[in-house]
């Protein structure tokens, strides 16, 4: 089985999880991954990083359930739950199957930053063995939405 490629949900600059201002992500409590500091554009789509079924769904975050039992979390900004959905649009429903690159949410990183919140977007391989997840772009590199970010090897 080949490694699963997880794509960037937003355009921006790749950052290590340790740079995320939230210990749940920074200390990899929910799993390994990387973060993307999004380009500061007015409205921006947030894309599915891989194929899967929408599990958890909030205006500021979503999780995809993969056919092989793995899960992927995309969190849009930090502490954005405090915005109670303001400025976020949800384009899918829980239980819906999505394809990599399909629009799931849209938001404004400019508005989130203006509210004094971090706009960084962690992409997490939920409960994965950190040794199975490899970044395919270097810290500080700019990625386009839909560009490969991580390779997640299947369990042996």
TrEMBL record:
Keyword Lipoprotein included in the entry's annotation: no
Domain PTS EIIA type-1 span(s) in chain numbering: 22-127
PANTHER family: PTS SYSTEM GLUCOSE-SPECIFIC EIIA COMPONENT
Pfam family, one: PTS_EIIA_1
Gene3D superfamilies, per the entry: Glucose Permease (Domain IIA) (2.70.70.10)
Protein name, as recorded: PTS glucose transporter subunit IIA
Location(s) in or outside the cell: Cytoplasm
Keywords of this entry: Kinase, Phosphotransferase system, Sugar transport, Transferase, Transport
Highest taxon above the source species: Bacteria
């Amino acid at each position: 089985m080949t490694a699963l490629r997880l794509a960037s949900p937003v355009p921006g600059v790749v950052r290590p999880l340790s740079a995320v201002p939230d210990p749940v992500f920074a200390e990899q409590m929910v799993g390994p991954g990387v973060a993307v500091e999004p380009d500061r554009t007015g409205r921006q789509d947030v894309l599915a990083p891989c194929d899967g079924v929408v599990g958890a769904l909030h205006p500021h975050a979503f999780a995809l359930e993969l056919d092989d039992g793995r899960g992927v979390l995309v969190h849009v900004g930090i502490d954005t739950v405090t915005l109670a959905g303001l400025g976020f649009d949800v384009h899918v429903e829980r239980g819906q199957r999505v394809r990599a690159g399909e629009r799931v949410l849209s938001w404004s990183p400019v508005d989130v930053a203006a509210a004094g919140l971090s706009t960084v977007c962690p992409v997490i391989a939920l409960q994965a063995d950190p040794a199975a997840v490899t970044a395919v772009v270097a810290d500080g590199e700019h990625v386009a939405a839909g560009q490969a970010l991580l390779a997640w090897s299947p369990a042996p």
